[in-house]
Every structure is written in C-alpha cells, then in structure tokens.
Amino acid sequence: MVQKRYVSIWFRHLLADWQLIRRPELKDVPFVFAAPDHGRNMITAVSLLAHSQGIDVGMKAADAKAICPGLEVIDDKTGRAASLLKAIGEWCIRYSPIVMVDDFSTDGLFMDISGCTHLWGGEREYLKEIVSRLKTKGYTVRLAMADTPGAAWAIARFGTVTPLIPPGDHAASLLPLPPEALRLDEITLNRLRKLGFYRIKSFIGMPRSVLRRRFGEDFLTRLAQALGSADEILRPLQVPEPFQQRLPCLEPIKTRNGIETAITKLLENLCQHLQGEGKGLRSAVLSCYRIDGKVVQVSIGTNAATHSVGHLFKLFQLKIDQIRPALGIELFVLDAAKVDEVAPGQEALWTARPGLNDQSVIRLLDRVAGKVGTGVIHRYVPATRYWPERSVKNCTTATEKPDTEWRLDNPRPTELLSRPEAIEVMALIPDHPPKFFIYKGAKHEVVKADGPERIEREWWMDKGDHRDYYRVEDGQGRRYWLFRSGHYDSGQKYKWFIHGFFA
Question: How far lies 312's CA from each of 264, 302, 338, 423, 475, in Å?
C-alpha cells in the first residue's frame, strides 16, 4: 500500500502578490484591498509593505489610512481570491492529479502527492520545484509535506524547523506548535489560552473525555485529523478519470518527435490497463501542460471500442499539428473520457469480416473522421416507426444493433428529405398519379408512375391525414417519391409533396 503524503501550500499574500504581478509599479507602495461590510470599508488583504507598517486584515480602511497616509486602497470583489486560488490549483495539477482548495483559511491549497514525488527525484526536490516555480511567477508561499493534510497545514503556517516531515513523524512535529495550528475556531482558542494551553503538547496527552467536555467534539475531530486517526474529506478541483495516464517530463518537450514519443508511452500504459479490464477506448482527451502555464488539449473519438495502440496513435497523429508547445510541455495527461466493453476476438479461421464487423473498416472511419470531423460521418439504422422521416435513427456507435430490420417489401428512396416539400401538381383524375409537377420552379413531365402506397399517420402521437405515395419518373429518367396528403380536396391548394429521390 502506498504511503499517503500531503502537501499544504500557503499563499501568505495571495491578492497582493497577484496585484504586483499585474502592476509592478506598486512594489514600493503600501496598498490594501478593501470591501464594504455593514456600512464600513474593511480591509480584506494587505501587501507585505503595508503589513510591515502595522496594517492587517480586518482593520477599517479609514484607520489604516490614518496609520499610513500614503496607503493605496483597492476595491476588492466578492469571490476574487477564491477564483484566483482555483486557477492556481488547476495549474498545480501538473504536480498531482488531486488538488484541493483549503476551505478553512481560503488562502491555501492541499495536494495528495502519494506516489508522485519520485517523478521529480524525491520529496525534497519535489518541494523545491513547486516553491521555485511559484516564486518565479511572483507568489510568496510556504509549503510543508506530511502524512496528513492537517499536519501539513500546521507545519506550513507555524513550523520553524523543516517543511519536510518524514513519514511517521507528523505527530511529534505537532507538539511544539500553538493550538492555532489545529484549525480551531476563535472561541475554542480563547478557552485554551485562558487555561494556559499555549502548545499542543500541553493537552495532547489529556483524556479524550475531558477534552470533549471542555472544548467540544469539533476540537477532537481536528486533533484526530491532524494526527491521522480520523479521515479528512477533501474535495478535488477535478476528479481524476478512472482511466488516466500522466507523463511528467524531466526537460520541456518542444519537438514533434518528443510529443509523438510521449503519446506512444501514454497509449501503451492506458491500453494495457483497458485490456486488463476488458474495455476499449471510445473517446480520449490529451492535455499538454506548458511551462508558461497554458494547457493545450486535443481529443479523438472512435466508432467502436478499441485498445489498439497503433490505431489510436494514428488518430492522435492527425491532431499533433494543433499542439503548440511554445517554450515547452512539462506534463502530458491522457484521459479516457469514454470507454466501452470490448467483445473478445474469435479465432481468425472462424471469423467472418463483412461490413462494420471488419475492424479495418472501423479504423478507416476513425481516421477519416479525424481529418474531416466527427460530425460528418453518420450511420443510420431502422426505427420501429410508420412515418418515413421517423423510421430511421442516427447511431452513436458503428456496432449498435438495430431494433428492427429494414423494410424490403416496398422500395424506398436513396435520399429522403428531412421534411416533405410542397409541390404543384396536375393530375387527370384527382386520385391518379400526377401528369406533371412543379418543384422549385422546374416543371417535370411524368412518363411513368407506380402506386399508390398508403401510409397511415401515427394516430397515437398526432392527428392528421394519411399519405398516398407514388414512385414517378420524368422524361429525363429521374425518379422521385411523391405523396398526396389525405383525400382529394379541391378547396386546398397544396395537397401534394415531394419526399425523396431514387438513384
């Protein structure tokens, strides 16, 4: 079983750092963010320079300006810090598939990094990489790694020795820290201070019944979460796909050959996993995380489930030109967005390969769709409906089985209009086929006709007349499918329609 390890990232001046990135000229100017609260303008975030002059979060903006006359007050917006933290968290997915926003302090992130650190050369190098990258972007951060989210949170904010707590040492690392490190509410913290508990080691050995009676169940829950005796439920920003492969790169990938090599490795691992589960890929998304913070995505789809590495690679090969590596790609993530069951193959001697049962046909369709678009190729099967325009349906897969068989008792046009179009007709006798008809301004003399074939309306769905269909041929040999709606009525101008064309 993999040892669970967590990282806590604390952004000490999140909004201030973000503002300095956008406006570097504020580097030597003390500034704060403020928002109205019950008729008063209250400070919500402070810069490092303003904090050094005695200004802190929760002060009135007017009092802060009295302390620091040169203070610049910037209007804050509701949810700005949360949106910024979420965006940074999504960027951090390159280091771990499971990244969570810290709901308690709203200025930090958690990462479940179990099994990830070896890709960066170990835990210490892993922490150095994250700190270095975030500082390069302009953020002041403190990180810590421990066996539990609670211990990592405590060390990141209150630790003074090392941010890297070895496995199994998280309980000992909590002992010299103040009670604030347990993420307790202010009422509980005041009770602890009144009783002289200024360090966790002062009360950690006391009976649980005594602690519960004095400080409540929430206090014991926070303590248990930090020690690892109780699970802490964290909500990931993105739930990892059950079939997902990740490939971090030691050096940024910039070339087509490098991208193709990365895709091949991802597909080999993914298809091996799928094959073991008896499943095949129907659609996949490749996310390329660039070192400039941008994410480039391409996707593929298949008409039938497959775990053929060669076939899937050819589909991605058609999309590689859409991947712009810029300064380089540092992480590739392949998500199997949709998978289906794969029927086990039969022995080649006994396998017939007609039509869509031939896997080479399926692969050809996939490659054509990759070039011209997935919405261009369609497959239709018969539906159990009477009305001709409702008697076919579009399939979602190339292997979908129809509910009924195609009708062969009467010919049907090779091209069927989605909606019948009105035509002008002249018939010698009202109930006979037309002598000629006018369609889109062109007159067609009818030389041959066959019919009628009566098709009743689906009375359980809507009301209306039946249709009498005729197959007619004009003087140029073109054949059409016409129908008269209902019985002849001299008072209605359009009773005839064209519905399709024969080959």
Answer: 9, 9, 14, 49, 51
pLDDT for residue 262 = 94
Residue with tokens 């289906």: 340
Crossing angle (nearest 10°) for helices 309-317 and 256-277 = 140
Q: How far apart are CA 64 and CA 59, in angstroms?
A: 7
Neighbours of 459 (CB within 10 A): 10
Task: Pull the structure tokens for residue 476.
Answer: 């140029």
Categorize the per-residue pLDDT at 347 as very low, low, confident or very high, splitting at 50, 70 and 90. very low
Side chain identity, residue 498: I
Task: Express each pLDDT in 180-218 by its tens digit.
Answer: 999 999 999 999 999 999 999 999 999 999 999 999 999
The residue to which tokens 């690392």 are assigned: 173
**Per-residue confidence band for 350, with pLDDT thresholds at 50, 70 and 90:** very low
Instruction: Output phi, psi for 452, to 5 deg.
Output: -90, 160
CA angle 113, 118, 123 (to 5 degrees): 65
Omega of the bond prior to 252 within 30 degrees of 0, cis? Answer: no
Query: Side chain identity at 192, as an amino acid letter?
Result: L
For residues 26 and 20, give the distance between their C-alpha atoms in angstroms, rounded to a whole number.
Answer: 6
Angle at 406 between CA 412 and CA 380, to 5 degrees: 85
- Predicted local distance difference test score (pLDDT) of residue 491: 62
Mean pLDDT of 84-92: 91
* 218 three-state secondary structure: helix
Q: What share of the chain is helix, strand, coil (3-state, %, to 5)?
A: 35, 30, 40
DSSP per position, 48-87: HHHHHTT--TTSBHHHHHHH-TT-EEEE--TTHHHHHHHH
**Distance separating alpha carbons of residues 498 and 142, to the nearest angstrom:** 74
